[in-house]
């Protein structure tokens, strides 16, 4: 994440960072960095579906530490994918890497895979704790930088792009943010941290102009890649620096590439001078005195540098002050949603999948620890996502096409490359039956001649009668595959434009229709548990292989334990619902008995791959159902996910 090698370079040079006693301040937090950091740096389980309760407790402790030091957090989350597609290759490579790491974990090898519901748990805890947050339409880095600059407060993140942004309050790397060990007197507690500023770095490079740092980032390489011919330029610069010894004196080894670039850039007063030198080295003589000839490397570098150009005022600051964010700016996602859903998206109550499907016609599915010899766990929940796509992309009843739900049997290509496919399935209605389960259901055929003109990014609804589809990127064996999945309209014709006016009963009917559950079957289930119970029924019908009775019983016991545990905890008022007054003594007894049966983290053994695959399918179904429920404006309450 960020600029290649920059974190190693800065953190390996102690004088670039200043010790601070952090307290009494606003703090802008990169939300995605926070939940990754908390989960992976505290040894939480990745093999058995996720330690969501331990993660929620850890996050609560983190927020309590901030409050103790009078630090006000403002959390900013990534939303959908960058509509420019500049980062898509990087995202695809990361997804392929996570598929391999999930397989490594399933075989007892090293790997790192974030459990699928971690982000949802994170947002639930923030909302319950009253922490201000916003989910941006796309990547959040630029918005975080703009907010921090306007407020002149630091940023807490793990992203090395923030070594480039010129922020007056600086950047606090998570690695040095010692929130678990508070210091100071009771009324003046503080967190020991280390703060980086571009001014400090530039001072150590002879007072270098900080406006040159983005050029260093672009030349070094970041998540957006590097312009064509950059390697040629770097080869020329490397040779020049080696001849000069990198400015380090006799007998010293040549500097790292980043240090060499900073030394080279420190010899220029302005960006224009540096780009003129680039043009000269590359033989682009026509651009003397200009910022790069049109189409030349210098002009492409300048364009890439704009990613680090901070503008004021900040839309996010306006949001946190009670106004509206992203008015007429980077609004491609929320701007296409009705106001009620647009607000939900900004509040973090509508997942990135919705924005990606609507704007990009493309969705990246999160890898899980499962049996890689079987179909992806996400195949069991495809019908739910097809309903999501149908609501988003079928604009009105007038141009609704008949939907087809079911699975596919993907075609493998040589070398494991991503495949393009078009689903052509038997018309089965929304439930599809057992033949529609998974990626390999019966009664299906595939036309592999997928049209390239249907690539993601097009938001134009196709002509009436033509199928509307979304690209899904998912696992096929150990490779990333691309599949065209058809958007299926619901029988009651619920569509995006009419969601805000649709009665709750209609929206609930649409949700239960997709999950294949009659409302009467849920009458005896507490209202706040109806969604996970309905999902469990859907999973039992759609999972491959069919879940065993002990697996179903394990899920039910897990739900019961989660409920009684929360009811017996101090502060459980957050989680109380309108249900009959419980028998507290009996609940305590049940909770204690179940707690004795719980396997502790230190007692866990290797993963049962068959069991893991089945429960990964259940989590995939719940993940997709949460998305559908949020899109339908919560006809059922969300369950407390950190059972």
From TrEMBL:
Gene3D superfamilies: 5'-nuclease (3.40.50.1010). Pfam families: XPG_I_2 (PF12813), XPG_N (PF00752). Residues 1-96 form the XPG N-terminal domain. GO terms for molecular function: nuclease activity. Residues 133-206 form the Asteroid domain. Belongs to the asteroid family. This is Asteroid homolog 1.
């Amino acid at each position: 994440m960020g600029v290649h090698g920059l974190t190693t370079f800065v953190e390996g040079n102690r004088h670039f960072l200043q010790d601070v006693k952090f307290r009494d301040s606003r703090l802008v937090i990169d939300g995605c960095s926070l939940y990754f950091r908390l989960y992976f740096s505290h040894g939480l389980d990745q093999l058995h579906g996720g330690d969501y309760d331990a993660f929620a407790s850890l996050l609560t402790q983190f927020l309590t530490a901030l409050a103790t030091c009078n630090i006000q957090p403002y959390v900013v989350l990534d939303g959908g994918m960058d509509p420019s597609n500049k980062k898509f290759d990087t995202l695809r490579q990361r997804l392929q890497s996570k598929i391999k790491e999930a397989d490594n974990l399933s075989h007892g090898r090293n790997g790192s895979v974030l459990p699928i519901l971690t982000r949802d748990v994170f947002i639930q805890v923030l909302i319950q704790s009253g922490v201000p947050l916003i989910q941006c339409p796309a990547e959040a880095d630029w918005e975080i930088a703009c907010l921090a600059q306007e407020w002149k407060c630091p940023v807490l993140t793990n992203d090395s792009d923030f070594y480039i942004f010129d922020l007056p309050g600086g950047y606090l790397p998570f690695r040095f943010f010692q929130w678990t060990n508070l210091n100071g007197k009771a009324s003046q507690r503080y967190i020991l941290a280390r703060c980086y500023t571009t001014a400090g770095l530039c001072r150590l490079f002879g007072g270098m102009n900080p406006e040159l740092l983005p050029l260093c980032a672009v030349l070094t390489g970041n998540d957006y890649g590097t312009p064509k011919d950059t390697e040629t330029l770097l080869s020329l610069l490397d040779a020049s620096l080696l001849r000069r010894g990198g400015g380090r004196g006799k007998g010293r080894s040549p500097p790292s590439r980043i240090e060499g670039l900073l030394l080279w850039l420190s010899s220029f007063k302005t960006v224009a001078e540096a780009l003129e030198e680039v043009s000269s080295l590359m033989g682009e003589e026509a651009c003397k005195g200009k910022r790069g000839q049109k189409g030349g490397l210098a002009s492409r570098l300048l364009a890439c540098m704009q990613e680090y150009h901070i503008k004021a005022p900040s839309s996010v600051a306006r949001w946190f002050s009670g106004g509206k964010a992203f008015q007429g700016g980077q609004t491609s996602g929320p701007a296409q949603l009705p106001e009620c859903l647009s607000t939900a998206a900004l509040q973090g109550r509508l997942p990135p999948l919705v924005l990606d499907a609507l704007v990009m016609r493309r969705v990246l599915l999160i890898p899980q620890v499962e049996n890689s010899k079987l179909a992806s766990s996400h195949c069991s929940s495809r019908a739910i996502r097809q309903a999501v796509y149908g609501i988003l992309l079928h604009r009105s009843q007038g141009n609704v096409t008949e939907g087809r739900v079911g699975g596919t049997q993907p075609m493998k290509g040589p070398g494991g490359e991503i495949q393009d496919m078009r689903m052509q399935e038997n018309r089965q209605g929304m439930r599809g039956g057992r033949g529609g389960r998974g990626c390999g259901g019966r009664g299906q055929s595939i036309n592999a001649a997928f049209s390239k003109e249907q690539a993601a990014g097009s938001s134009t609804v196709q002509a009436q009668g033509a199928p509307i589809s979304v690209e899904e990127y998912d696992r096929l064996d150990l490779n990333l595959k691309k599949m065209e999945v058809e958007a299926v309209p619901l029988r009651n014709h619920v569509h995006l434009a009419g969601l805000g006016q649709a009665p709750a009963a209609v929206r609930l009917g649409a949700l239960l229709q997709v999950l294949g559950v009659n409302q009467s079957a849920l009458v005896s289930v507490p209202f706040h548990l109806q969604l996970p119970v309905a999902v469990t029924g859907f999973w039992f019908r759609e999972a491959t292989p069919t879940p065993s009775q002990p697996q179903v019983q394990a899920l039910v016991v897990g739900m019961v334990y989660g409920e009684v545990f929360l009811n017996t905890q101090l502060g459980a008022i957050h989680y109380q619902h309108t249900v009959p007054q419980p028998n507290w003594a009996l609940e305590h007894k049940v909770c204690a008995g179940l707690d004795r049966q719980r396997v502790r983290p230190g007692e866990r053994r290797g993963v049962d791959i068959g069991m893991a695959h089945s429960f990964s399918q259940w989590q995939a179904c719940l993940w997709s159902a949460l998305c559908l429920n949020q899109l339908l404006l919560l006809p059922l309450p969300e369950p407390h996910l950190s059972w």
